[in-house]
Amino acid sequence: MTRVLIALATLIVFGVLKLPAERSLAQEHRESRLADVDLNLNLREQIGQIGFVAVLSGFRGMLADFLFIQAHAAWERTEWGRVLFLFQQVTALQPHVPLFWDMAAWHMAWNASAAAMNDPSQPRLALRMKAQREYFAIGRDFLERGIKNNPDNPKLYESLARLYREKYNDHARASEFFRKAADCPGAPIYDKRFSAYELSYCEGWEPQAYIQLRRLYDEGEKERLPTLIVRLKYLETKLNVPKEQRIPEH
Amino acid sequence: MKANDETSIKEAVGLPETPTLPEYHRFSPWRVLAITTNTLIELAWQKVFYVLLIFALVLIGSSVFMTRFTFQQEFQILKDVSLGAMSIFTSVLAIVATARLIPQDMEDRTLYTILAKPVPRYEYVLGKLLGVLLLLAISIAVMAILFTAILYFREQSLLDETWRQMRSGPPGQVDDALNAIRAAGLNNDIFIGVAVIFLKASLLAALTLLVSTFATTNIFTIVVMVFVYFIAHLQPIAREYWLQQPHVGLITRGFLALITLIFPDLQAFNLIDDIVAGVAIPMAIFTKTVLLGIFYVAIYTLAAIFVFYGKEL
């Protein structure tokens, strides 16, 4: 027994020695945004006691996947409330997986909104439209929070740009977010082009859009895609660009 | 009298040469190796090892049937489930296998046979621990090979499929699509995750060995270790509360301090969720985690040896 107590005392002494190393490592984890999950009562209420224990035991990723599969099944059954509830949990558990934010936004802004608009139990169009816009807003909120948690991921900016383009018909915001996507490391080459396309639809921004599209056109054959040529020709006509400065007929 | 004279007298009277004992070393890696090998063989014969290993392999293998998801979702789930299965399996194995080592040897009387020979107790404890660590390393290597193979072949088949479908498209778009698959597939950070899982299991094995040196049964050790597992995951919360809340009562502070100082910070080893999420693990953090893990293992092993020296056998 004496030896056990001496061993315990030794562990306490070594515990004091390890304390600065543990704190410094935890600080570096926070700085590198590792284990960046707020383990608060709100999350505890969302995922239940067993889920919370699983999170504390280091099985956060597995639990998030399990809930994601449940959300997928709920989507197949078109239980939109449950899909939303489960995706809130999934994104709270794994905030650094852009895929989860993207899927959550897609289900809300595209699928749930379409279902709300075609809801046979709601005869009033105004209420169906209201519900549809609420789902757009939920989708947008998922993407905005996703971007906040993953500011260097081009995929979420692209999805937000598409949401503005297709659901809000807001080409200026769509162009802005495609440009932000293009600025991210490892962004696909089409983001810059898409940003210019969207700008070409904005009233009052035609000169800027023309400059961007013309610059892309001048980069060479690989950028001279049919949509780019069509938009460029439209802007040349609209801006009365002199004939000698226009691009040749393709 | 000189030694040569003594030899010649012995020869003259017909006395045999005095038998010389083999040279005794205070520490012999060969003795430790013998105990390690023996422990490994003994553990490998246990049914629980195969049940757990098969369960983990089935879990990893079942992740293949995710075809209704997109490739990003499929890879995400495959990585999460596989690394999670490895983590569960190695943690359970580390606790269960280590808990039974000393009680089983006492029950079989093997312990007395070994210690009756010139084997110091620390060599016995070291040999036992290394045997468990070797078993953990082999198990994790088997699981990692299966997991990597599944991920690699799935990635290759997707790359081929995408290439076939998009080869007539613009080269930039084809590259983007292929790069997206590569980014979601196999990357080096996964091996960092596997290394950290092994380190966490090693730490649990060392801690279980310490508990088993003063425990009377292996059931007691396992139950204690289950509690320790959860407490050690909460240790960083206790630590921050202890250090940042000076106004709490003395008893609470003392309790929090005890948890902070005695238990390891297991949250420091939970990097797999972030690795799967695609967060790059800086080399400095990985190195510090490895050093902290080695420090824990060394301290708990030393404490286990110390307690074991005082154990009445």
Write structural notes for this entry.
The complex is a heterodimer of chains A (250) and B (313). Chain A has 250 residues and is mainly alpha-helical. Chain A contains eleven helices and no strands. Chain A has helices at residues 2-31, 41-56, 60-76, 80-93, 98-117, 125-149, 154-166, 171-183, 190-200, 206-218, 226-238. In chain A, α8 runs antiparallel to α9. The termini of chain A are far apart. The mean pLDDT of chain A is 88. Chain B has 313 residues and is mainly alpha-helical. Chain B has one domain. Helix content of chain B is 78%, strand content 0%. The mean pLDDT of chain B is 84. At the A-B interface, α1, α3 and α5 of A face α4, α8, α10, α11 and α12 of B.
- Number of discrete domains of chain B: 1
Separate helix tally of chain A? 11
Class per helix and strand makeup of chain A: mainly alpha
Unreliable parts of chain B: none
As an assembly, this protein is: heterodimer
Residue-averaged pLDDT of chain B: 84
State the distance separating the first and last CA atoms of chain B.
46 Å
Question: SSE string of chain B, helix = H, strand = E?
Answer: HHHHHHHHHHHHH
* Biggest interface and residues each: A-B, 52 and 65 residues
Q: Please provide the count of β strands of chain B.
A: 0
Averaged pLDDT of chain A, please?
88
H/E element string of chain A?
A: HHHHHHHHHHH
What is the count of β-strands of chain A? 0
Specify the structural class of chain B: mainly alpha
The percentage of residues in β strands of chain A lies in: under 5%
Low-confidence stretches of chain A: none
